[in-house]
Predict the structure.
Amino acid sequence: YGAVLAAEAAGRAAGAAVETATADLELARNRRDAGVVTEADVLRIQVFLAGAREQQIRSAGDGTIARARLNQLLGAPLDSAFTLDDTPAPEALAETALPALEATAVAERADLKLSMLNEQLAGAAVDAARAAFLPAVYAQGGWEANGGAFGSRASSWMAGAVARVNLFRGFADQARLAEARHAASLSTIEREKAETATRLDVRMAVARLEAARAAEAVSRAAIAQARESHRIVRDRYEGGLADVAALLGAAEALQRAEAGSAAARVDVAVAAATLSRALGKR
């Protein structure tokens, strides 16, 4: 899913670069026709435009491959088309204290629930093994009626009780109890290990989401600055105050900023999904 979003974001950034380079190429041609600049300016911008188009084609191919792989994972036909949403889930972006998030993950994670059930099962096995050392009392009773006719039948009854005391069984019960206790200890260790891993997953996911958010905020500012810088340099180039190298440098900086901004948005969406998974949400 993230690969599809990243490929589509890169394609949009490359498309924007193609549009920008096309406009710059038209400006350079006009200035060449006016005799202000030479053919070299036009050729350099054409090279930049070709590179942007190549990146656009590569991004489209990467997107096609990523969508096919996503369809394979979903069990859908490889040619199926889905509209993917790169907006993070609201609950994943909510400002929540880390202890509360960890508590939610401990309560919701299926793997941790399984570890807890295994621990409880091992504890029940210890109780069963310990019960073999306790005295056992059994009671039984019976009643019967005998006779050739229903009104002349003779009845009888019987009642009894049995007490069993475990004195010695060749240390078999002690061995079973030791085995059960050992299994219970391992189950407790596995549960604690799973709980620690769950808390670590949450902390890592929160840290990555916060970093992705910060990077996305920086990328928004960077793309705004790059667009303004490119506009200023284009105006200076049109007025003969800047050369084509400065124009191409500003265009490349704008392309990098747009690609970085798109990738940052994808990172936020993927980090939010990772946090939702760490919390045990479906």
User: Anything to note?
Assistant: The radius of gyration is 37 Å. The mean pLDDT is 85. Residues 39 and 159 are 117 Å apart (CA to CA).
